[in-house]
Amino acid sequence: MSFNLETMKISGKEVLPLIEGGKGVGVSTGLTAGAWAKAGGIGTVSAVNASSHDADGKIIPVHYKGKSRKERFEELVAYGIQGGLTQLREAHEVSGGNGRLHVNVLWEMGGAERVLHGVLEGAKGLVHGVTCGAGMPFKLATIAAQYGVYYYPIISSARAFRALWLRSYRKAPELLGGVVYEDPWLAGGHNGLSNTERFDRPEDPYPRVKELRATMNSFGLQETPIVMAGGVWYLRDWEHWIGNPDIGPVIFQFGTRPLLTQESPVRDSWGKTLLSLKEGDVALNPFSPTGFYSSAVRNNFLEELYQRAEREIAFMDHPADDHTTPFIFGVRNREVYLTQHGKSSAERWMAEGFTKPLMTPDSTLVFVSPDKATEIRQDQLDCMGCLSQCKFSNWADNEKGTTGRKADPRSFCIQKTLLKSAYGGAPENGLMFSGHAAYKFAQDPFYANGFIPTVKELVDRIATGD
User: Fold this and answer.
1) Which residues contact 214 (CB under 8 A, 6 or more apart)?
2) The 3-state secondary structure of 263-293, one letter per residue
3) How much is the pLDDT for 1?
4) CA 235 from chain center: how many Å?
5) Among 114, 131, 227, 348, whose CB has the most other CB atoms within 10 angstroms?
């Protein structure tokens, strides 16, 4: 059976309904986005900690000089705008005027509005659309309208879109280029699970997207496309969505497959790992400092976090109920009270070398090695505010510069590990965001014998249904 993928008017131009999913901190670059656009699709430059490079194309390392978090935060915003502009200009040059170029930001990243304004102001005429998720970006429509670009909110339920529409988007409907439905159980990176949804009980996307379409239709958005993101690999598996009135106009977003192209900056460092993954090797986990669940390869980095979570016990400041066994720790010899079972567990973990109990905001202790305790403390001290709120360091983008809660040692510095992963660090020891379909690299004959395509070859392959 032949597969026929027709072009669609997206962000003002007839292109293939194929979008490169934005992957922040140096993975979706000007080179990858430009190549996607040149191939006739929609390329996405991520403005999340985007990197600048010199005349030879080498990445310019980022060094923070500020002594306070707020000083480093100002540097972060400036670096972000400069890097975003660098990547967008490269994408425009590489694309040769073909396709469309979008820029992606996370609403919960530090300085999101300032970075977005800076990038859109400095790259007028180069950007055709803005994709934004990780939170409820109510101001997205207003910002897009200011610069005359289309906007694409990322949501994971019809209810979320309804709230965005009624509060804000109805005021700028003509620039709503599409609504990105990101499957909260299958997409890579941060996921939009609500408090009523179980991370271990995935739901079929079809009825959820059907409900989204019905909601959009009720607002007169019958012709506005839905972008299906998360779990998309072979388009032939989604053929029943194309031309389906329950779904309406549909675009497909690919975030995981573009990790392995000749243009991808993680081609060499991640290639061997990605090509050997098995089903289940990507885990939806609760450790992100954003407070969102996120999907990443279950490697040494993630395993350490799972093991750290197993060495956690509740304490009380005074004897109460079954917490009557004293436990003394730290250089100040602080005394707290554990259960007898908790005291036994603490002694066992300390005997195994996890001799540093660290307090969490939830009146628990988590036991780590001295080296890990030192690393955690240093990472917290080095915080530069890459998130609007960070549970790991307790930074917040507000007047006080804090969430008002204690820093949480059960998490990690997300910018540090993503930078390491993107720029050649050992993939088994860093955070590798990935969609749950990544195991298909090892099964898909397209990648046989370690073959890694160019972006053009990948887009052409996807357009055939495979």
Assistant:
1) 158
2) CCCCHHHHHHHHCCCCCCCEEEECCCCCCCE
3) 41
4) 23
5) 131
**373 phi, psi to nearest 5 deg:** -60, -40
The secondary structure of 372-405 as a DSSP string is HHHHHHHHHHT----BSB-TTT--BSSSSSS-SS
What's the DSSP call for residue 446? G
In the prediction, which pLDDT does 94 show?
Answer: 96
> CATH 3.20.20.70: which residues of the chain?
8-296+433-463
Can you state the angle between helices 455-463 and 30-38, rounded to 10 degrees?
40
pLDDT tens figures, 172-185: 999 999 999 999 99
Task: List the beta bridge partners of residue 227.
Answer: 180, 251
| Exposure of 68 in the CB half-sphere (CA atoms within 13 A) | 6
| Interatomic CA distance for residues 74 and 384, integer angstroms | 9
Beta strands in 16-61 (DSSP E): 18-20, 42-46
Please tell me the distance from the alpha carbon of residue 98 to that of residue 19, in angstroms, as a whole number: 14
Q: Give the single-character DSSP code of 413.
A: -
CATH 3.30.310.70, applies to 8-296+433-463:
no
Alpha carbon distance 466, 450 (integer Å): 17
Beta-ladder partners of 45: 103
CA–CA distance, 408 with 392 (Å, rounded to integer): 5
Mean pLDDT of 150-174: 95
- What is the gyration radius of the CA atoms in the chain, in angstroms? 23
Measured in degrees and rounded to the nearest 5, phi and psi for residue 326 equal -70, 145
Measured distance CA(193)–CA(183) in Å, rounded: 9
- Mean per-residue pLDDT of the chain: 93
What angle separates helix 69-95 from helix 112-122, to the nearest 10 degrees?
A: 40
Residue appearing with tokens 């915003």: 77
Query: How far is residue 288's CA from residue 290's CA, in Å, rounded to a whole number?
Result: 5
Residue 365: CB partners within 8 Å, gap ≥ 6?
Answer: 312, 313, 315, 329, 336, 346, 357, 358, 359
List the structure tokens of 48: 């999340």
Contact 35, 453 (CB under 8 A): no
Considering only CA atoms, which of 133, 62, 115, 69 is closest in space to residue 394? 69
The candidate with the shortest Cα–Cα distance to 295, out of 437, 170, 426, is 437
The pair of three-digit structure tokens given for residue 31, joined into one six-digit string: 């080179």
Please give the model's pTM, rounded to 2 decimal places: 0.93
State how far the Cα of 203 lies from the Cα of 294, in Å rounded to an integer.
16
Using alpha carbons, list the distances in angstroms from residue 409 to 22, 185, 336, 367.
29, 26, 18, 10
